[in-house]
Design brief:
The complex is a heterodimer of chains A (about 550) and B (about 220).
Chain A (H helix, E strand, L loop, with lengths): L18 H5 L4 H29 L10 H36 L8 H23 L13 H5 L4 H28 L12 H33 L12 H35 L6 H15 L14 H29 L8 H24 L1 H7 L3 H31 L5 H28 L13 H31 L44 H5 L1
Helix pairs in contact in A: 2-3, 2-4, 2-15, 3-6, 3-8, 3-13, 4-6, 6-7, 7-8, 7-9, 8-9, 8-10, 8-11, 8-13, 9-10, 10-11, 11-13, 11-14, 13-14, 14-15
Chain B lengths: L20 H36 L1 H8 L4 H26 L3 H31 L16 H37 L9 H26 L7
Helix pairs in contact in B: 1-5, 1-6, 2-5, 3-4, 3-6, 4-5, 5-6
The chains are: A mainly alpha (about 550), B mainly alpha (about 220).
């Protein structure tokens, strides 16, 4: 490798050491690490609830926890994972670290606001943790009225407050990215020279800015209805509970794309670097991100096919849901076409990319099953739906997140991790994931409903398989935690460009200096220019 | 880009991540517009609820709307529109380097905002004492509409309450602007904070322009 520059004397990690230098930092890279620590914490809390659920479901009778406790387990699992891990994970960790570097800027447009976003996230998280300690919530992460507004006696308000507050963290991060991408690009960095990760981050930010305020007002209305006995969703005074579902899914369906679009952006980077080729059909992949963001706002009604929606609405929402498959498939086909005749790598980041493409395809195609009206009536509220969205959220988002974390880890930390262990854990995660969730497709199709702590004995074999898979998956998630931490101290030093990849982030040192570049770069090459890129020469 | 702007490039208000004040201003303005779009969707959720329930229960909404204190709402509308004028004049004063007028108009804007909140508080007090706050103590004169009128008043308190909260935040922002103006931080080269806060103030004003007819006026004539 031509790049021999190892750890530079001054970089963002040794620019101040005290607690204050971290908690009051305005450096987007340090804020990314603050997020990394906090989303990892919430991931393992959310994961602990999943462990308890899978333990309970190993036997058909409810023997480990009561039904009420089980209701709280799946609620807290959903709330923690969706609002405090999946939504912030890639944008707030990898996005924060990479957006300014990838466009050749010194920082985001609003560094103080960026730090404020992290504090807002933490305060929202503390409310939710309080709700957990004070007894938990049992409404499901969907908070359907009137159960959440009238009947439930659990900690709905602290959780709602936590979600409300955390929402502003997403909004402000999205706003920061939009302004940064519009106004802070280095000379020569045109829109169509940007890495595809930025296109998908941009699309995600649009959803954050347009969708998140709607969930904010929705949970606020639920809170107000509980506190003051307002009647927005209360049938006793003429309110309509289904209206709550409309408001909730108007955000929460696009939220699925908040989770998966950034992962798609990561995969585009990994595939280009792993095949040493430009991503096939760059503009199509870029516009597919925007198309997914736009279409994502038009399909929320498919969550209410069995909630008394009119046949005509249901038909339209069904057709629109099918349309989302087109830009999603464009991406999958283009990544595959990129690999065609590429010099395909088998290093860890690429393993995650392969995993993502396969699992996302299964998750996406089963999405078409549930978008079809007839099939949906059969599988609504069964494990089929649970399996479907876990293929997207875990198989898609977490695979993308881990792949990206491995790919940029040398840049973030300046160290290399243990490649064999990393490959091993990628394999363990892939096997564990499929063993956990594939049986759930079958269970759901056979009619096992979700959100129950007990089930008929004939479902036990598949449930035991799923629980066994979950324990393998758990090991797979703990491994990277261990060897990545280990690498911080004992890993070999990374060069500026350990993958021999192109992109501005690989032209600066590992780890980068606080101001990212010694001088503002001028971009004269196209994205993923593996034929004539100056990247190799520049860093030597 | 980094060089060549001479004195402006080294302006004390220039943040380290920007090349020049022009870029900084563009970023701040775009950021505020993006935030206002977020705000539109935030209020949009309540406007949706209002539209749905108004079309479901037009008679009850007309009856409940009849209970609003129209003169107070009208007065507040005038007060708020005038405050938007003084806000716009404050931006103009900042552009033309007239610090005395800038301070004067900012104070006028804040005073009008406070009057608005005072009138609103009077209205809330009246509605509380007439038992129009939804919940167990709710009372509505016309029995036929007693239930659905609760939805109207739920929406009324939620929408105007959140609007009032935005006004209070606006007053806080204006306090900072006043402090910056008195300290001489606002100059014709750098008046971005005033302009961006002005955008926010106008937005809060516009929300009221929609709330006033929806809550106070529409359907009044249908009822008594």
């Amino acid at each position: 490798m031509a790049s021999t520059v190892l750890t530079p004397p001054h970089h963002y990690l040794n620019d101040g050491y005290g607690v204050k230098s971290w908690l009051l930092t305005r450096d987007h890279k340090r804020i990314a690490l603050l997020y990394l620590a906090s989303v990892t914490l919430f991931f393992f809390i959310g994961g602990a609830f999943a462990v308890l659920m899978r333990l309970e479901l190993a036997t058909p009778v409810g023997d480990l926890v009561t039904d009420d406790t089980y209701n709280k387990l799946f609620t807290m699992h959903g709330v923690m994972m969706v609002f405090f891990f999946l939504i912030p994970a890639i944008p707030a960790v990898l996005g924060n670290f990479l957006v300014p570097i990838m466009i050749g800027a010194k920082d985001l447009a609003f560094p103080k606001l960026n730090l404020a976003s992290w504090y807002i996230y933490v305060v929202g998280g503390l409310f939710t943790l309080y709700a957990l300690v004070a007894g938990g919530v049992d409404t499901g992460w969907t908070f359907y009225a009137p159960f959440s507004t009238v009947s439930s006696t659990t900690q709905v308000i602290p959780t709602a407050v936590g979600i409300f507050i955390t929402g502003f963290s997403s909004i402000l991060t999205g706003l920061n990215f939009i302004v940064t991408i519009h106004r802070m690009r280095a000379p020569g960095m045109t829109w169509f020279r940007m890495p595809l990760f930025l296109w998908s981050t941009y699309a995600t930010s649009l959803i954050n800015v347009l969708g998140t305020p709607v969930i904010a007002i929705t949970v606020l209305l639920v809170g107000a209805e509980r506190l003051f006995h307002f009647g927005f969703f209360d049938p006793r005074v003429g309110g309509d509970p289904v209206l709550f579902q409309h408001l909730f899914w108007f955000y929460s369906h696009p939220a699925v794309y908040i989770m998966v679009l950034p992962a798609m952006g990561v995969i585009s980077e990994l595939v280009a670097a792993g095949c040493r080729k430009p991503v096939f059909g760059y503009p199509f992949v870029a516009f597919a991100s925007l198309a997914i963001a736009v279409l994502g706002f038009l399909v929320w009604g498919h969550h209410m096919f069995v909630a008394g929606e009119s046949v005509y609405s249901a038909l339209i929402f069904s057709i629109l849901s099918f349309l989302v498959a087109i830009p999603s498939a464009v991406k999958v086909f283009n990544w595959t076409a990129t690999m065609y005749r590429g010099s395909v790598s088998w290093q860890t980041p690429m393993l995650y990319a392969y995993g993502f493409i396969g699992l996302f395809t299964i998750g996406g195609l089963t999405g078409l099953f549930v978008a079809a009206l007839g099939v949906d009536v059969h599988v609504t509220d069964t494990y089929f739906v649970v399996a479907h969205f876990h293929y997207i959220m875990v198989g898609g988002t977490i695979m993308g997140y881990l792949g990206g974390l491995h790919y940029w880890w040398p840049k973030i930390s300046g160290r290399l991790y243990n490649e064999s262990l990393a490959k091993l854990s990628a394999g363990v995660i892939f096997i564990g994931f499929n063993l956990t969730f594939f049986p759930q497709f079958v269970l759901g199709y056979l009619g096992m409903p979700r959100r129950y702590h007990a089930y008929p004995p004939e479902f036990q074999v598949l449930n035991v398989l799923s629980s066994a898979g979950a324990s393998i998956l758990g090991v797979g998630y703990l491994l990277p935690m261990v060897y990545l931490m280990w690498s911080l101290r004992y890993g070999r030093l990374a060069s500026s460009n350990p993958w021999g990849a192109v992109g501005l982030e690989w032209t600066t040192t590992s780890p980068p200096p606080t101001e990212n570049f010694a001088e503002t770069p001028t971009v004269t090459w196209e994205a993923y220019d593996y034929q004539s890129s100056p990247a190799e020469g520049q860093v030597a | 880009m980094p060089d060549g702007h001479g004195a402006i490039a080294h302006h004390p208000a220039l943040a380290h991540q920007f090349d020049d004040l022009g870029q900084q201003k563009e970023a701040a303005t775009l950021g505020m517009w993006a935030f206002l779009i977020t705000e539109i969707l935030f209020f949009g959720g309540m406007f949706l609820l209002y539209s749905v329930y108004r079309s479901m229960y037009p008679a009850a909404f007309a009856a409940a709307s009849h209970e609003m204190i129209v003169w107070a709402g009208t007065l507040n509308t005038c007060v708020l529109i005038t405050s938007s004028l003084t806000m716009a004049l404050a931006v103009h004063a900042a552009q033309t380097d007239n610090r005395r007028l800038l301070v004067l108009f900012l104070v006028a804007t804040m005073a009008l905002g406070t009057v608005f909140l005072g009138v609103k508080a009077f209205e809330y007090y009246t509605e509380f004492s007439e038992h129009h706050l939804p919940g167990p103590g709710f009372h509505f004169g016309e029995e036929a509409y007693a239930k659905q009128a609760q939805i109207f008043f739920s929406l009324y308190f939620m929408m105007t309450g959140l609007h009032a909260l935005h006004m209070i935040i606006g007053l806080g922002v204006m306090t900072v602007m006043l402090w910056m103006s008195l300290r001489g931080r606002i100059t014709p080269e750098y008046y971005t904070p005033i302009e961006v806060s002005g955008l926010y103030w106008h937005f809060v004003d516009i929300v009221w322009i929609f709330l006033f007819p929806l809550l106070y006026l529409i359907g009044r004539h249908l009822h008594g």
